[in-house]
UniProtKB/TrEMBL annotation:
Keywords: ATP-binding, Kinase, Nucleotide-binding, Serine/threonine-protein kinase, Transferase. Gene3D superfamilies: Histidine kinase-like ATPase, C-terminal domain. PANTHER family: ANTI-SIGMA-F FACTOR RSBW (PTHR35526:SF3), ANTI-SIGMA-F FACTOR RSBW-RELATED (PTHR35526). It comes from the Bacteria. InterPro entries: Anti-sigma-factor_SerPK, HATPase_C_sf, HATPase_dom. This is ATP-binding protein. It comes from Streptomyces solincola. It holds the Pfam family HATPase_c_2. One of its GO terms (molecular function) is ATP binding.
Length: 144
């Protein structure tokens, strides 16, 4: 098995691209041996959807594109990251705030923890950021 697999796609910061990001992630996972009906595949699609939506909605048009990256290391850890060029880091809303949106980071954090993973945010050299979720890869063997 490969020690390291990765795939990425750069998409326009447009709401229509979020479904493209989800399909990209699903296709890569299937190529790496994770069936689309597996719970982990559902989790990753939701994480990608939320991260891509955040990259589109919360960069206020200041990041013309965003990049979705999937990385599998030593068949042990799957990292899902979305990078944009906007400097503002994600904000978590207080639980008491009532509004129809703005819960993406709460959902992502919950999914990470629920699946034994972790959420991180790191700056990029160009002043943007990458929001990344690392999840254990213990579900299926990876095909070469």
């Amino acid at each position: 098995m490969a020690d390291h697999l990765e795939a990425s796609v750069t998409l326009p910061s447009d709401p229509a691209s979020v479904s493209t990001a989800r399909r990209f992630a699903a296709g890569v996972l299937a190529e790496w041996g994770l069936p689309g009906e597996h719970d982990t595949a559902d989790t990753v699609r939701l994480i990608v959807s939320e991260l891509a939506t955040n990259a589109v909605q919360h960069t206020f048009g200041l990041s013309p594109t965003y990049t979705v990256e999937l990385r599998l290391d030593r068949d042990e850890e799957l990292c899902v990251g979305v990078t944009d060029s906007h400097p503002r880091w994600p904000q978590r809303l207080p639980a008491a705030v009532r509004q129809d949106n703005g819960r993406g980071m709460t959902i992502i954090r919950w999914l990470a923890v629920e699946n034994g993973g972790k959420l991180s945010v790191a700056p990029t050299p160009d002043g943007g950021k990458t929001v990344r979720v690392a999840l254990p890869w213990t579900t299926v063997p990876v095909r070469r």
